[in-house]
Amino acid sequence: MTQLARALTIAGSDSGGGAGIQADLKTFQELQVYGMTAITAVTAQNTLGVFDVQTLPLASIAKQIDAVVTDIGVHATKTGMLANAEITALVARKVKEHQLFPLVIDPVMVSTSGHLLLDQSAKKQYIEELIPLATVITPNIAEAEALTETSLDHLDARKKAAQSLHALGARSVVIKGGHLEGEEAIDLFYDGKEFCFLRAPRVNTPHTHGTGCTFSAAIAAYLARGVTLAKAVSQAKRFIAAAIAHSLPLGRGHGPTNHWAHRQGGEPDAD
Ligand SMILES: Nc1ncnc2c1ncn2[C@@H]1O[C@H](COP(=O)(O)OP(=O)(O)O)[C@@H](O)[C@H]1O
Ligand SMILES: Cc1ncc(COP(=O)(O)OP(=O)(O)O)c(N)n1
């Protein structure tokens, strides 16, 4: 048997199964990557909203990371909901201690339903400690605006924001365009040298819960499989586009994306 690719997600749990740790594990599994978790917070959540958040003690998060890294081994890591400044700083320390690269940072701040998933005070730790470690950071428009303190209502501003995040130390940046308007959902990818666009038809659906988590988990899965960064982001874009095109009308609010939709086109893409 060839070596099984293994990925770790450090993120929050979504009881509704559409975002967070649950979305990440489903994505890893679909992309034939063995998934492991370090849970930062437990949310009571469904398609309508977030009803409770309990963060885990720092020692528990640290031990979850130590346990999987020192025994099973990790080929790629992603971070999602980190909840507060202390957890963000701890995760940055653990990434350095265990050299958890390649590292995909999805700087989760607010849920679709408008619930705050990161204390505002954690921005400092993101900027000073975590972002400098990123192989790729994947903010949506609002997250990129918060991190760069600029308004990103036109393409030039988004390009400058990508350059600013790169200047903070991130090796590459994807500014996601899911919340923009237009016939296509266009993400901006910057690798420190060139810009390129990741494009997919915009799907007119309210069922987009977990899109950012699924996209970043797919990037981590492809990186764990050893594909190049440029290929990982473009294949992840295909994966999330299919998951949204066939999203699931579950619950009474924003339903989740469909993690097995990519199979309808056949087997997972060859590397
Ligand atoms: N309605 C949509 N149709 C097609 N792609 C979408 C749609 N909404 C989001 N996406 C894509 O899903 C991914 C996640 O983007 P986004 O929704 O902006 O992130 P987040 O969930 O973090 O807010 C991006 O690749 C984005 O372009
Ligand atoms: C536990 C947890 N983590 C992250 C999110 C946010 O998910 P994301 O894919 O960024 O976006 P929405 O699902 O909110 O559109 C979450 N809701 N819960």
UniProtKB/TrEMBL annotation:
E.C. code: 2.7.1.49, 2.7.4.7
EC primary class: transferase
SUPFAM superfamilies: Ribokinase-like
Keyword annotations from UniProtKB, A to Z: Kinase, Thiamine biosynthesis, Transferase
Recorded metabolic or biological pathway in which this protein acts: Cofactor biosynthesis; thiamine diphosphate biosynthesis; 4-amino-2-methyl-5-diphosphomethylpyrimidine from 5-amino-1-(5-phospho-D-ribosyl)imidazole: step 3/3; Cofactor biosynthesis; thiamine diphosphate biosynthesis; 4-amino-2-methyl-5-diphosphomethylpyrimidine from 5-amino-1-(5-phospho-D-ribosyl)imidazole: step 2/3
GO molecular function, one term: hydroxymethylpyrimidine kinase activity
Ranges of residues in domain Pyridoxamine kinase/Phosphomethylpyrimidine kinase: 14-258
Pfam families: Phos_pyr_kin (PF08543)
Family: Belongs to the ThiD family.
Name this protein carries in UniProt: Hydroxymethylpyrimidine/phosphomethylpyrimidine kinase
Annotated source species: Laceyella putida
Gene designation: thiD
